Amino acid sequence: MYKLSVYEKAMPGHIGWKEKLTAAKEAGYDGVELSVDESDERLSRLDWSATQRLDLLRASRETGVRLPSLCLSGHRRYPLGSRDPETVRRGMAILEKAVRLAGDLGIRLIQLAGYDVYYEPSAPDTAARFAENLQHAVSIAAADGVTLGLETMETPFMNTTKKAMTHIRRVKSPYLQLYPDIGNITNAVPDAVRDLQSGQGHIAAAHLKETRPGVYRDLYYGEGEVDFQAAIRELLRQGVRLYTAEFWYREGTDWRRELSRARTFLQERFTEAEA
Known about the structure:
Blueprint: E1 3-7, H1 17-26, E2 31-36, H2 40-43, H3 50-63, E3 69-72, H4 85-105, E4 109-113, H5 124-143, E5 147-151, H6 161-171, E6 176-178, H7 182-188, H8 192-197, E7 206-209, H9 228-238, E8 242-246, H10 255-274
Parallel strand pairs: 1-2, 1-8, 2-3, 3-4, 4-5, 5-6, 7-8
């Protein structure tokens, strides 16, 4: 009783949505997580026309593959804690547009990157500014019935569930929850399961990503050190039922085969966790 989506970037960027959704379905996934990262190309998705939004929605309906979540990593470039007022303004505009896009596409959950800043030094003032703007962002999302899920990142500001929970407790809104990245947590603490326990009752979904010390991305499953079985067992115990396989397409590889291989790998970990 769980759903497993695949991160959009596990597939080539040049192929169309119908092909992406069909490939995900053929590999056994229930959904595809939409990416809005810091690139101009993907940020432009926030300004899609009504026709473009309907085309994606139609492709989702025709294939039967859902769009349950949106990974909003564009705030790496326009962080909510920046010292530059224009950067913050752009960051808040991105958040508002993402909420509207999610509403139009039937997406219920936006994964929000847990960065106060990224390309500038983190400090008490950037942390305070992030906290203030996060409160406003949650109000925007709540008005459209969209949940924001804080992602545990690779930087010290919010690399654990325990750190993310300080914001959950402060904001106290049903529309701000957690969307932890299991791989990032594994690199941050000696006991990922114990850290996940600190988010009991507030974890809306989880990214299942492979990592090893010092390496946070571009690994296939089995190339890192994440104990997926233990993490999944704890998440299932907490009632978490929405998961995303996060990995990246490698140019020149048989990406369809990798989609299927990743699905098989994670299915085995779920079976072991449920035993």
